Amino acid sequence: MTLTEIAAVETATYDRTVQAGDGALVRVPAGGRLRIVDLHGNQAADTLLFDAADVRNKYSAFDTIREQGAVFLTTGSRLLSTRLDELAVITDDTVGRHDTIGGACAQESNVIRYGEHTRHQHACRQTFLAYGAAAGIGPRELGHNINFFMNVPVSPDGDLHFDDGLSAPGKHVELTAAREILVLVSNCPQLNNPCNGWDPTPVRLLGWWS
Ligand SMILES: [Zn+2]
């Protein structure tokens, strides 16, 4: 981190390091800024956003992609809900682009992709359910998520695959809440594809709000 960033970190009102395989549920008031820092690089921070007033009004990858006319997320991307409400805007991004198509890992998808021996590996879906429960977020409220720092190139004919990351140690992405939101993060424990550089590592969440 640069000196300016270290100074900014000292003023943060929220500061939490999330280990690989763990998660967090963060309430961010309107106007609050939440930064996710990729501490060691090449991590995947699977993230869902919800309207704090009604968790059924949740982040919609489909509406976000259609309305911004782009499949990747970066600075300026408006993160929309299923009711087309603006939940947050990406106001800073030192990586360049983030995936919102690849989805989160689950025990079922691990088995299909990597084989039966991976069934009992911890997956993001379990972390989402464990941390979401406190806010009434159950299986029905889980939708297509954002994969911050994850590199999922999409070819012109619509193919996509998981690639080694574009991120690097200390890079970050920052969201500014457009209304009071709940941010549900699963710091991905995936060991079977290069989205975490084969080595899941911690991320740091920093928040500025009063
Ligand atoms: Zn995962």
Short descriptors:
single chain; 210 residues; alpha+beta; six-stranded antiparallel sheet; five-stranded antiparallel sheet; 11 strands; 16% helix; binds zinc ion
Layout of strands and helices, then pairs:
Elements: H1 3-10, E1 14-18, E2 23-28, E3 33-38, E4 45-51, E5 54-58, H2 61-68, E6 78-80, E7 86-93, H3 107-114, H4 124-132, E8 146-148, E9 171-177, E10 181-187, E11 203-208
Bound molecules: zinc ion.
Total beta strands = 11
Shape: globular
Question: Helix amount, in percent?
Answer: 10-25%
Helix count from the secondary structure assignment: 4
How far apart the termini lie comes to 24 Å
Give the strand order, joined by hyphens, for the main sheet.
1-11-3-9-7-6
Radius of gyration: 16 Å
Bound molecules: zinc ion
- N-to-C series of helices and strands: HEEEEEHEEHHEEEE
Mean pLDDT: 92
- The computed structural class is alpha+beta
Let me know the largest β-sheet. 6 strands, antiparallel
User: How large a portion of the residues is in β-strands, by DSSP E?
Assistant: 25-35%
Outline the low-pLDDT stretches. none
